[in-house]
């Protein structure tokens, strides 16, 4: 629409004025709508003087890194480096069960990997952040009350160490405006309207210790869940949906054999602000299809349950 096209031009002009003729900008992208829109805007403004870094921490969803590279680099022309640090992340997480320890380990390593990559890219002047207006007005960020009881995943520490100035082209916008902006710049709808995904990724959706096997199991199950939600049109009615791998096994029967395998929980949060949420009233047919498909297609999971907890008292993520 007209006002958003106007905003694109205005944002591009502001970025050029801030960065100058020769300034260089670096920024992390995750595949989420905020960092994607910010990166594409940056690329429009200063081309390859903007460098995007995608850290594959091994905790991303199925095919996510490949899809982000395809969308941002191949389709949008963003100068993007994808760093495969999955072994390093899984190494740091080995044997760690405590959710706060997982978050700290992931956050710290993220900064190390990003700094290493920044050194390879060369001197930059600015760090791009996809900060939105709600993050600015509430110091606790869009996550609301629970943000104060969990350590947040951010790159603020990079500024001092790398002597970078912050550039935040989305800091006057609300989420829905960022989405309109993404559409106005021609990004695909499913990229603009996707559910949020947390920085620590699958590590906080695998309860107990995290290893490659558990990540692969959860990736497959989560993929089937989201595929069915998209196929049935339910996805767009939900604020955030994902699967959680529980650290326990239960007995089942498959053919003539006894099984003893992992339990998977499905979460679907009905919310628009993510501060409070209700469990989405999922049509039973979808639950049945998803459960049957996961148990048949993912060896290692033999039971699927649905989470009916509101926030509060629950949080959206299980951790
Ligand atoms: P909770 O679990 O606190 O989650 O109810 C609220 C929203 O925040 C997301 N979340 C995060 N997002 N970095 C993020 O960018 C994080 O470390 C993080 N932790 C939780 C969560 O997915 C939900 O949308």
From TrEMBL:
| Pathway noted in the entry | Purine metabolism; GMP biosynthesis; GMP from XMP (L-Gln route): step 1/1
* Protein keywords: ATP-binding, Glutamine amidotransferase, GMP biosynthesis, Ligase, Nucleotide-binding, Purine biosynthesis
Sorted alphabetically, the Gene Ontology cellular component annotations on this record are: cytosol
Q: Which Enzyme Commission number(s) are on file for it?
A: 6.3.5.2
Q: Which positions fall inside the GMPS ATP-PPase domain?
A: 2-194
Q: For binding ATP, which residues are annotated in this chain's numbering?
A: 30-36
Gene Ontology MF term list: ATP binding; GMP synthase activity
How is this protein named in the record? GMP synthase [glutamine-hydrolyzing]
Q: Which residues of the full protein are shown?
A: 67 to 385 of 385
